[in-house]
Write a structure and sequence with these properties.
This protein has 792 residues and is α+β, with helices and mostly antiparallel strands.
Length: 792
Amino acid sequence: MGHSAEKEARKRAKKEKKRQQKLNRVDPREAFKHFFEVLTICITKHPWKVAIIAFLFNGLLGLGMLNLPASKLLNNDIEDLYVPKGGPTERTANELLKLFPDKSGYDFYPHQNVKQPLFGEVMIWRHNIHNLINGTLYDEIKHIVEFVKNISTFTTNGGYAKYPDVCARRNGECVVQGEEIVDQIENNSDGSIPLSNLINRDGDNYETSLSNLADYTIENETLTSAKYLKIRFHLRQDSETMLKDSKLWRDHFVTYMKKYISKQYPKSLHLTFSHSGAFYEELGNDTFMDIPYFSFVFTVFLTYLGIVMAGGNIISKRVHIGRIGIIVTPVSVLGAWGLLMGCGVEFTNTIGVIPLFIQCHQIINALITLSNLSDVNDVKDAHQRVAYAVKNSATSITLTTLCHVIPFAIGIASNYYVTKLVCIYFVVTMLFNYFNHFVFFTACLALHEHRIDAELHFCCWTKLTPREQLVDEGRNCCVICCCSGKRPETREDTESGPERYSRILMSRFFLTTPMKVFSILSFLVYLVFVIWGLTLYDIDSVQISKVLPRSYFSNWNTYWTREFKNETIIQFVAIHPHGYTQNRTIVRDFEKLIKTKSYMKSDSFHSWFETYSSTEYKNLTTEKAFLSSVEKKFIPNNHVFKYDLVVDEIRPRVIASRFYMKTNHVPSTKAMIQIKKDLKKMIKDMNEYAEDVDEMNEDNGVVSDSPFTWQVEDGKYFFAHSPDFLATDWYMLPLWEILKIAAIQFALLFCLSLILNPSLGMAIQLPFCYFSMVGGIFGISHFFGVYLPRCP
């Protein structure tokens, strides 16, 4: 028995030891709450000082916003913001520009564009959509052309420029596609133009005049009718200064054309217009429309809190402290944006919608804190009441803040500059909001509770007379109502009618079995609509994006997509490390292979060599003889091909050349992607073949000492390039970036649910609700005509 008693004593001692260890173990959650409790007690002892210092701290940082105009931090260059950098098309363009520099300042041909083209465009048709080729319309059409040419802008150096000062030029004249058709309309009485008259003034430049017409008819080599005419005004971009000036002119083009249409609309013509960056500009204008709603929503929030927190008597009213909870966000915006602008971080108009999101978050923070405060109305000490409210709301507020900050912090690495800027401003503003909530708002909360203990008026902060004394003095009911009250002792003493009735409705109506069944059925119906919307959610090209349906771009786009074909010009570049004559056979095979592709327009092949081969001075005996015939005879007679050949000046020979071919109509970005994929595979096969041939040449003693041999380091002997490929580089990237942020938030919710409430059911339910909400944004938005472009 003694042995059993001793064994039992050891067990009890072991259990007691474990119990003590458990008691001594620090619970991280309790330690976290204790930190905020201590912080709150310190703040409540000096509330005026803390509130004033916190406000001044944000206000002084806000002075950094003066750096916005001083350092020109405002960036609304939509193409810079919305077009990702470093894609395959951009890299290829940068390589090709070293061989074929931009000549838009003096020798511009539209089909030779390596960079994205820069232009303004006007589309014209008659009211009755009859034949536009009519001499009676010439004056009106010519007036439109001259009006555009006279549009002026201020330049980056403070000067003044009209279209001829920033236009893309050739032979000393501005390149305006479609103007030669306008010239033919003059004195035209029979409504027809011989096709021979539509040859451009500098000869064959590949972009035929017919590409500027739509719904036209040709009979016996004569243009007999045309219903739509587009006139494209090309702009220079051969230097950074000219690029900026051209974009400034392009912006004024929109402004002046809107005025022209509203005040001087042609009598017999319909007119619409656009420019090369119109789609991106309209994306930016979308955000301009959203920003003014912030002030409206801010007012609604203040009104809402004024109604919800209107409960209690003249002492216990919480309406002002609720409004202070809203003011935390503007104070945070002032400090955060001032800090960022002071550090030189650029600002764009899209950032203007951030306060709206943070304001919604802050309302929840304020309501959580005030709800916890209402639970301790019976506690006499104001310090303890505030400490209880803050420490019990700290965990939920911190976790919701993390769920926003962490995904957006990862979003700073986005490929889109606008997303990068938005994420930087969002994260910093959210952190400032978190700081100000627990410092500035807590200090104001302490002042509010000190006022209650001192029985001061909620608005005037004057000492109130006890209700009994006013009754004894025979005062009327209005004086008694407005000038007396008592400190709250229960939760009901501070609740307003909406709060009280909503709780009653929740317990007696919404939580009943029939309502639970109704909620489940409603959620199932919601899921059906979401899934249905997701199956229909498809946007394939920037050209069919629903951007501002009443905008100038949307109007132009409606007619352009309906009447004109989207034919893409593709440049095919060949590198000749040992001269053109050494690998012309490979190049000819390459050209034949391209012509076999079904998506290429068979009659659009445009090659300098094809023209050269038909001349009498063709000479391919040696590279020297070939180059001599090209430079002395071919180029002087065919100036359009001058920049399709690159000559090595150190060792005279042609080391690069290019030719062109159009695609058939490309209806969507998906179709463009398929073309690009097929060309990429073909280029890869040709490069491997050319590399094998080059190795054979080197084995036979043919060695290149050209400085341009860097072009073939990675087996790059052939390139296929078009500025239109840019839309395919980042196809669906915006969607993937949003899904990445949503996935991070989903994972955070799951992990935090397990930490705070170790229940697998709750850990699954909360992320599932979030998933259904995000899915609903995409699914339901389809039925409202709201889309997310899947390309930049």
